[in-house]
Amino acid sequence: MARSQGPEDRLPPHNIEAEESLLGAMLLSREAIGDAVELVEADDFFRPSHRELFRVLADLYARGETTDPVSVGDELRRLGIEEALGGQEGLNRLVIQTPAIASAGRYAQIVRDYGILRRLIRTASDIAEEAYGLPKDVRALLDHAEASILNVARGTSHESAAHLEQVLMEVLEQLEQVAGSDDLGAFAVPTGFRDLDELLTGLHRSNLIIVGARPGMGKTSFALSMALNVARNQSEPVLLFSLEMNRIELGQRLVASQARVNSQRLRSGRLNEREWDQVSNAAGELATRPILIDDDPNLTVLDLRTRARRIKAEQGLSLVVIDYLQLMSSRRQSESRQLEVSEISRGLKLLARELDVPIIALSQLSRNLESRSDRRPQLADLRESGCLSWDAKVRLADGTEVPIGMLWSKGARSVPLASVTPEGVPTVAMGTRVVATGLKPLRRLTLANGSILRATGNHPIATSSGWREAGTLVSGDVVHVLLDATTVATTVVESVDELGTELVFDIEVPETHAFVADGVIVHNSLEQDADVVMFIYRDELYHPDTTDRGVAEIIVAKHRNGPQGTVNLAFIADWTRFADIAPSD
C-alpha cells in the first residue's frame, strides 16, 4: 500500500519547464531579459543553477554587455559556475528547447507565481514554528504574521522602484488634475481651514504631522475641528485614537462644536429648549460623518498599526489622528523614554507611508518655553528634542569629521554617517538632512578622554544607564563614545557648564536615530520623522489683556516640502472649536 504523503514529503511548487523556457528566451533576446527583470528575481527560480544563470544574465544586461550564449558561457567560466549549468552544451540546450521568444513574459509570470507560492509556504511555516514556540507576546506574533503575509502579497521587492519616465508621467498627470480643479483632494486631504490649506496645500498622504502645544492651548480641539472638516468632505473614514479622553468625552466635544453650544452646559445637561434642538440636530448631522473612535488608553504602536491596517483594508482611510504621542507606549523595553518616543514616531511615519494616509500626532511640549519672554513654541520645545552647536564635529562613515554647522551651510543631504544600532552595534546610517532649529542655550560637556561636546540640555546622550538628556549629566557620569568604526567605549564626564545662547542644529537619521558628535554617541530629536510640525499658541493664556483674544496662531515650524509660516484661526472656547477668521475686505 502506498504511503500517503505528508507535508514533509512534498516538493515545493515549481515549474522547471517554465524556468528553462524563460532562460532560453533571455539567452536569445535582450528584450526578453528586459521583460523578465521587470517581473521576477533570482529567488523565484526553484533550481539553484537557474538562479545563478538569471543573476548573470541580469548583471550583463544591466552593464550593457552582450548576452548571447557564448558571452554568457564565458562569464560563467570566469565566475567558476559553468559546470553547474552543464557547460556550454547546457546553455545551447536551453536555447534550442525554447518554445517561443515572444512568450517570455508569460514564462516569467509562471516562474514568479510559483516563487510566490514557495514564499507563502515558507512564511506560513515560519509563523507556525513561532506559534509552536509559545511566544510571550502573542499580539506581536499576530502583527508579524499579518505583515509577513502582506509582504508576500505585495510581490517582489523591485516592484517599489519606478522608472523616472513613469514618475514624471504621474507628476504631470497630478499637475493637470490640480490645474483643472480647485479641489485639493486629488493629491492631499484638505484641513478645512482656508489659510492653513493655502500654506500646506492640504495634508499630504503618507505624511506624519505633529501638532504640539502646551496644556490649555486646545490641541485636542484643533485636531477634532480638522477631523470634522475632513469627515465632512471625505467618503473614507477618519480614525481617532484617543489615549487621554474616553469616547463619551470626545463625543461631547464634537457635539458641542457642531451644535455651537457651551461645552460645560452640555456636559451638565443644563440646556434650554433651543439648545436641546441644536444638540439633537448636531447629533443627527454627526451620525452621518465617517468618524471612528478608538479610546484604548493602553495603545501601542503595534495595536495602532494592526487596527488601522484592518480598517484601511475594509473601509479605506482618509486621516488618522492620535491624541497624544507621549501617552503611547511601545511593547518592547526601551532604555529611556526619549528612545521609546522616538521609536514610536518612526513607527508612525512608516505607517503613514504604508497606509498612504496623513497621520496627525498630537504632542505635549516642554515646560521650558514658559521661562522665555516670547512663549511661542519652537522645534526644540518638543519634549524629546535636542540640538548641537555649530562646531560639533559629526563623524562621517569614512572616519572624517565635519562641523554640523558646515554641513548645514552646504545644504548637505544623504550623508553617510558613523552610527550605532538600537542594540549599540557600530554601523553606517544615512543622514538625510541637516536642520537649524533656532537659538537655544547650550551646555558644555568636558570628558575625560579630552572631548568637548556643546549641546542643548535636552539632547539625548548615550550613557551607561541608557539615553539621558545632556542637562541631567553630572561629573562622574559614564557616557558612550565611538573610538573607530567597530569599537564602542566609555569615558567619564569631568564637568558640565552652562553656556550662552547660540544657533543650534540637528541631523535627521531615520534608520538608526543616532550619530556621533565629537566622538560621543548622540540621539536625534522627535521632530525628525515628521513631515510637518505645527504649534498652537494663544496669547490670551499668558496675557489676558491682549488684543488677540479668541485668536489662535498655528505656527508651521517645519514643512519638509514647502514653506513655513503662521496662520491665524479663531478659537471659540465655549464651543471648543477652531474656525477660519473672516477675511478682511
TrEMBL record:
Glycoprotein keyword on record: no
Name listed for the protein in its UniProt record: Replicative DNA helicase
Annotated transmembrane regions: none
Catalytic reaction(s) noted: ATP + H2O = ADP + phosphate + H(+)
Originating species: Acidimicrobium ferrooxidans (strain DSM 10331 / JCM 15462 / NBRC 103882 / ICP)
PANTHER family referenced in this protein's UniProt entry, alphabetically: REPLICATIVE DNA HELICASE (PTHR30153:SF2), REPLICATIVE DNA HELICASE DNAB (PTHR30153)
Job of this protein: The intein is an endonuclease.
Keyword presence, ATP-binding: yes
